[in-house]
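How a chain folds remains the central question behind the approach discussed here. This step matters because it turns folding into a mapping between discrete strings. The sequence in question and its structure tokens are set out directly beneath this paragraph.
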Amino acid sequence: MNSMRRANVRKDRRRGGSALEMALLMPWFVFLFVGAFDWGFYAHALISTESAARVAALATSARTGTAADQTLACNYAYRELKIISNVTASSSTCSALPVIVTATSQSDPNGKTYSQVSVTYQTQNLIPIPGALKSQATFSRVVKMRLRS
């Protein structure tokens, strides 16, 4: 009987080891999850900003006279950015953050006219990770496209 009692004591000593390991590692798991979550938001914002600049440049380069059309560029950029959480239809002025859109008409050295669209987007406040991620990021993309007349 004494040997059975020892076996039970050994089993009792090993209980709770997994719970203790999980309790000690949980802060690291949360830290990694928050970092991955923030990086996902930033990647989505960057891809959306690039797409908005491309679509707005494509729209403004459609014909002569629209290369510097700020309103047209703003409308197309907002259509692309409306899936981002802090871009609302009521704030579609395109002249203040979170979204700034500018469209200009320029000429290259060969005399060809092109449309240049710049889109700047500022993300919402996320959870900062000191030394790795800030609480907000600002992305800017510029696209140049020759006029298709």
Remarks:
- Residues 17-60 form the longest helix (44 residues).
